[in-house]
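Chapter summary example.
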Amino acid sequence: MGREHWKKIWVGSAGNMVEWFDWFVYASFATYFAGAFFPEGNDTAKLMNTAGIFAVGFFMRPVGGWLLGRVGDRKGRKAALTLTVTLMSASALLIAVAPTYAVAGYGGAAVLLVARLLQGLSVGGEYAASATYLTEASAPRHRGLASSFQYVSMTVGQILGLGLLIVLQRTMSDQALHDWGWRIPFVIGALGAAVVFYLRRNMLETEVYEESADDTPASQKGTIKALLAHRREAFLVIALTMGGTVAYYTYTTYLTKYLSNSAGLDKQTATLVSFCALIVFACLQPLAGMLSDRVGRRPLLITFAVGSTLLTVPIMAMLKHADSFWPAFGLSLLALVVITGYTSINACVKAELFPTGVRALGVALPYAIANALFGGTAEYVALWFKDSGMEAGFSWYVAGCAAVSLIVYLSMRETRDIDLNLVGRSGKPGGPGNPGEPGEREPARVTSS
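The structure predicted for these 449 residues follows.
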């Protein structure tokens, strides 16, 4: 890929990193601020309350997916990406200044809820806007590699959040972290989002969007009516996301709580396990993306689904008895290696299914619905199983979701060779029904600016 390709990928990824830093620090610091917004009681109950608010943010994501997906298809990818980071900055600032239960009763929890709704709105559009932007901005034969940086940046955002947590754990007392230290990451997130706003104001639009030649009328771009013309592809996005999003949130946002709340590891060790495993995980994404550019998307998706279906139950069972860093790290890393088959390429697979005029909305809305139903509820479902005395049931739930996605991966067609400019054109419908002419690779082009 050329210099301009990498420039676009860098700007798109940097913003995505800050967005997901803000999104994930909520989960990473939840054990410290759970007691700040709710009255004294059972520790698991307080975590369930904060997890419930975490899940509520996911249910706002379909709204964000529809609204910002529409902006992305009508006004451009750049406009959508700039708007998402503005909303995220505002939400992080709200959490940073939210009053505690001792000061305002449940008023603090209400502020927390509003902030999570704004975050849900922002991230609902961010995923699709960045997935579409990274896929369109890349060289045609390197879409898997380019789109893999979405999860690289997402994971780096989480790594930075966990790294900050580790630093604070080692420089502040546990009491100080519970009292006020948990506000620090949200202040940093708000400032980081402001910097990214400036970067995105000066980013370049994708050539694919500017030269859009699909058959979607201008008045219908980014509309539900246009999306319904591709409802099969929309359903495919929901189904292929189901297993991946449950597994991803299980081994990222929920893992630290599981290791400390169920396995009995202290919070610092549990955080260090997640931090180290995620560093390796981030490095794997571009390698898997490059592999998909050579062998196709389906082999990686199928490998993930088979591995997640068969290995989730034993991995979770062994993690529960991991009593030190190395066993917990090894098992966590094994799970993340399996998930890489999904995370590294799911962005480009979804973007490759839709024509340019409805691509952002086509990725955003179905993906956000799947995340609201499965990803956002994963942590709450896990804690519900634990609180009900059936903790092992959650492992079977995760494996079952992966099994459903496996059926979809086995039945869908390959999308690697699709020409993004021809998806949706007359005689060349996109999606799993007709991914382009067999053996026809999209010609390489140099992006001008």
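To summarize the output: Residues 309 and 403 are 6 Å apart (CA to CA).
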